[in-house]
Amino acid sequence: MSDALVIETVRKTVTVDCAVEEAFRVFTSDAMSWWPVEAHSIAGDRVAQIVFEEREGGRLYEVSASGETAHWATVIAWEPPGRLVLAWNILERDAIPTEVEVRFLPEGERTRVELEHRGWEAAGEDAEAHRSNYDAGWERVLGFYEQRIG
Amino acid sequence: MDALGDRTRRQVFELLRSGPRSVGELAAELPVSRPAVSQHLRVLQSAGLVTHRRNGTRNVYELDGNGVAELRIWVDAFWDEALARFKAAAERKGDQP
Asked: pLDDT tens digits for chain B (97 residues)?
């Protein structure tokens, strides 16, 4: 589609003053120490725990103080301490599937962390085509139905 | 801009992704009052995520065509904040004996 929405990948780089293993560990199993849960989670400031299932196919989810869980992402690639890829559903109810890749690269004693948040094309097409797809689909289904009973 | 930083506002945005809705319809699907929904819609509108139009006698709200591009801008700012906090946390841990 020539008029498809092209949305650039989000790219971020940060260099941290610690070893690659430590950077990977803090990013994943110690996410609670830095994730801005107040504004960026389902339960907000009631989030008690962030669980990172450390394997391919594992889930990343929050657990609230009252024990409710909410899914954030699924681990697509788990390659400690160098790389991590997550399938990330943005928003809650009407999820937009995107992909987050994080790479941890040694730079002497320090670690360069490169993050890519990509896959906006699907979300763009979805946003543009969501309603029209449904409309066209139903028209066709109802067309068959009419032919059948007509 | 952090128009989507609030949970209820994200829910309003999500509902509008599946089609245009009036304030009353949004309020019926959310655990908040109509005035609260209107307030969230004002923020979303001023951020360029949502527009509204008259549909007969109804005033309906819908996503601005560039809503997804805006969502990306929000995610971009989110990672700036999150990674700054990650850096602080990683270096704090590293300092500990």
From this structure: 456 667 788 888 878 877 889 999 999 999 999 999 999 999 888 877 888 988 788 889 988 765 666 677 778 878 998 999 999 999 986 555 4
Question: Global pTM?
Answer: 0.69
Tell me whether residue A65 is in a domain: no
Q: Based on the structure, what is the number of domains in chain A?
A: 1
What residues of B are in the A interface, CB distance below 8 Å?
Answer: 2, 5-7, 10-11, 13-15, 17-19, 63, 65, 67-69, 71-72, 75-76, 78-94
| Residue A18 structural domain | 10-34+73-149
Q: Report strand pairing: A47-52 vs B21-22.
A: unpaired
Answer whether residue A55 is part of any domain: no
Quick check: B50 and B13 in contact, CB under 8 A? yes
A80-A82-A83 Cα angle (round to 5)? 85
Residue A60 inside a domain? The answer is no
